[in-house]
Amino acid sequence: MSAPTSRARAWRGVLTTPLGATAAVLLALVLAVAVLGPVLWTQSADAVDTGNILGAPSGEHWAGTDNLGRDIVARVLVAGRLSILLAFAAIGIAIGVGLLLGSAPFLLGNGRAARLVSAGVNVAVAFPGLLLALFFAVVFGVGATGAVLAIGLAGAPTFARLTQTLVAGLAGREYVAAARVAGVGRLRILVRHVLPNLREPLVVNATIGAGSSLLAFAGLSFLGLGVQSPSYDWGRLLYDGVGSLYVNPAAALAPGLAVLVAGLAFNLFGEAVAKGLGVTELTGPRVRRPATKAAPEPDEQRDHSEGRPSADVVLEVRDLKVSFAGRDGQLRPVRGVSFSVHRGEALGVVGESGSGKSLTALAVTRLLGDDATVEAERLRLLGQDLLAEATPAQRRLLGTSLAMVFQDPMSSFNPTRRIGRQLAEVGTEHQGMTRAEAMARAVDRLDAVRVSDAADRVRQYPHEFSGGMRQRAMIGMGLMGSPSLIVADEPTTALDVTVQQQVLDLLSAIRDADDLALVLISHDVTVVGEVCDRVLVMYAGRIVEDLATADLATAAQHPYTRALVAAVPDMATDVSEPLATIPGRPVGPADTPAGCAYADRCPLADVRCRSEEPPLERTAAGGRVACWHPGGEPDVVLAGPDLRRVER
Amino acid sequence: MSELRFEDVSVRYGRHTAVDAVSLTVPPGTVVGLVGESGSGKSTLARATVGLVEPTSGTITLGGAPLPRRGRRPLQMVFQDPYSSLDPRMSIGSSIAEAMPRDETTATRQGRREEVRRLLELVHLGSTSPDARPGKLSGGQRQRVALARALAGRPDVIIADEITSALDVSIQGAVLNLVRELQQELGLSMLFISHNLAVVRYVASRVAVMRAGRIVEEGTTATVLGQPEHPYTRELLDAVPGRNPR
Predict the structure, then answer these.
(1) Which residues contact A572 (CB under 8 A, 6 or more apart)?
(2) Exposure of B97 in the CB half-sphere (CA atoms within 13 A)
(3) Is the CB of A550 less than 8 angstroms away from the CB of B86?
């Protein structure tokens, strides 16, 4: 089962960091003292020596003796168990009550009762914890039981709030909705679907909470509200020791040190756990470096438009590789991609998620983070080497001659600043315009991307724009300079079909009007087909086919391209036949096979396909294809999970 | 099998009317496609049908009787995103078993196990272990598990809300084939919601077009998509990518 092993790995990860290891050792030490302390040292802790009352530290008594001549170090060690048990009891109460209060609103539905509980928790959270503890201590009476209840209840609101927030988040998940639709009761949903998913954050907070409740206990006992004689915990010892601070400071310092070490152990451990578990959840398990190397691409495999004069080349990419450092080696999601884009040309890049199409775009636009390594034989924009150290000149070139359009226009704008300002910034930053000039240009550009009332619209915030308007504004931002290349990464995926059409039309129009080069990345072959002259089909980090858009439907050579085209129903698809499908799933960068990456899903695959990676070679039609059987058996594709053969 | 009927159903959130006096019928054994853009109210209508939101006015009936408010519902829903509609901590077998009604076949552990096997077989996941967690499965496989879970409730009608739009194109086809196959084999009734006209055309025999909370056109798929009467339907049809290739 994957969940337990990955969890075990996460915990192992926690323990192997320096912080985690230190915390674990400290915690083990504290717990060992709690377990063994009373067994080993009770005798010396209780041995009254009237001849040595309030003795100073000596070889025999390292921290001196108390007012009955008992050894203080031994008493501190013995007190460990009670202190820690009390802290655990209190945190147990806090979590129990907190869970109950926190999940009550979910159980009660969205009615008045639920709101009342939430409001109560909110008020309680606002109360200082220690004050609450003092109040409860008075209510429950002075003593250990009272103190446990007091600290436990005082900690409960924090946990209630945490639970409430987490539960509210989880309750919005679709699997909770699915369970409700299935007729599962609220209590059952809570126990089966919600609570198990709050385990990690609760564990983390409980560990840290144990540390704080230990401190709170020491505080209460020190004030004389906690443990009473003849029992003693660290707080009580501190209380006794402070009385003789000027005679023997060690009597107060020793229990103080114990509280410090134990508190530190709990808090550090909680922190380490939080870091360890949190990080693995974010990045997921990393994997080994693929054992194979991509077949080298011979020099002559240029793209088919290379016959055009080189002055027209806007972007030139040769043997581009992108890799990330994984936990157990390197991952290479882009494995040698070569293409060029000319002035006035629209190039589409299609592929499934994980094919490396977006990474290619980000590598070209130098937008990848520091964790990525970008290598290429050549990477040039308008003849300028993009791989060289980023000079101010290069930054200006990227800023003005390249425009990038992202999938989600909401997250690509700063929500707190007006649209006009954000556009104008490009002008003032990269083109040395004054503010007024830049703002005028922003209005002009919004006009150009057909945003109505641009002069008024520049004063609006991103949320006041609709999705399609925002995407236009994003394109307008790219047009603030005089770009030679627009890279659009799934620009219409988040948009409705009618708006999608408008944005695609806009991109086409801009391309035609200004003779720009356009690179359009999409998972949807039909979208690319509407705008582009040429299509690159990517699979597992490589280009598997490069062909003219007009040839997509009829003359594709690679079985993957043909399957992609056939898999998408359009308005002319024969509804009496099952749709063509591609069996299996795409390979990830971690398990790229030795031969052709598509071999496992390909109806044409043979022994050679599984052992040797096909190079990307020129086709008769002027495109490029990486396949040992290009164009083979064009009428047959593998269909369905049951591997039925279906005529296209 | 019985007929799902919406009569004058409205759903309001505060002053915003998400669904505005919708009347629609899903006849037994047919797939009715519901198309429209985001914000047109199609998902709200779906959520009202399965009881996740309360209609402000109007009635939803199944076979003439109002839908039960508590307990097992004769309707099941398949959600858009198979990555969030399955509990990551629960095995797919338990997720499916959870939706089963309690009766003699599902009273025993053995009975439930066999029923889970049968359902997984039905959605072409026969070789997948019921003990697998969703994390082990691809998006398409998860969506098939979600379909199996919906079938486990032995619903009279299934509501499918954009079930292919989160999937890669190579997987989308397999899920659509499965939907058609299940419909033909089991005679399922389905309200199939999608913004993709080509997808709806492929699975649905009737189509309703929704805009701003209202149904603007309804009829057989061939008529609505072949001879659209409402300008909005025509606009939607014109926007389908691939209609005007270069």
Answers:
(1) none
(2) 21
(3) no
Domain ranges of chain B: 83-154
Cross-chain CB nearest to B89 (options A3, A497, A570): A3
Contacts of A529 in chain B (CB under 8 A): 241-242, 245-246
How many whole angstroms separate alpha carbon A291 and alpha carbon A299?
24
- From the first residue on, what is the mean pLDDT of each consecutive set of 10 residues in chain B (246 residues)? 88 87 93 88 89 88 81 81 86 90 82 91 86 84 90 90 82 87 88 90 93 93 92 88 57
Average pLDDT over residues A420-443: 87
**Residue A348 pLDDT > 90:** yes
DSSP state letter for A622: S
Is B241 close to A640, i.e. CB distance below 8 A? no
Measured CA angle at A235 (ends A231, A237), to 5 deg: 65
Per residue in A311-321, pLDDT (tens digit) is: 688 999 999 99
Residue A600 confidence (pLDDT): 87
Q: Which amino acid is at A310?
A: S
User: What CATH code is assigned to A2-283?
Assistant: 1.10.3720.10
- From chain A, pick out residues whose CB is under 8 angstroms from the CB of B50: 181
**Backbone phi, psi, residue A317, to 5°:** -125, 125
Shortest CA distance from A576: residue in chain B: B202
Is omega for the bond preceding A255 within 30 degrees of 0, making it cis?
no
H or E segment at A204? Answer: helix A199-222
Q: Is the predicted pLDDT of residue A287 greater than 70, yes or no?
A: no
Burial, B110: exposed, middle or buried (Cβ in 10 Å; 0-12, 13-18, 19+)?
exposed
Nearest to B38 among A353, A496, A582 (CB): A496
Instruction: Give residue A344's region: left, alpha or beta (phi > 0; psi -120 to 50).
Output: left
| E strands in A343-401 | 346-350, 372-375, 378-381, 384-385
CB contact set of B235 (below 8 Å; sequence gap of 6+) = A498
Give the model confidence (pLDDT) of B92-103 as tens digits: 999 999 888 888
Beta-bridge mates of residue B11 = B19
Q: What is the mean pLDDT of residues A264-290?
A: 59
- Find the distance separating the first CA and the last CA of chain A, reported in whole Å: 40
Give the single-character DSSP code of A538. Answer: E
CA quadruple A85, A86, A87, A93: dihedral sign: positive
Locate the domains of chain A by residue range. 2-283, 549-648
Q: Which of A182, A353, A530 sits opposite B246 (nearest CB)?
A: A530
Q: What is the DSSP string of A14-72?
A: HHHSHHHHHHHHHHHHHHHHHHHHHHHHHHHHH---GGGTTPPP-SSSTT-B-TT--BH
pLDDT of A371 reads 80
For residue A3, what pLDDT is reported? 47
Nearest residue on chain A to B75, judged by CA atoms? A181
User: Is residue A301 pLDDT above 50, yes or no?
Assistant: no
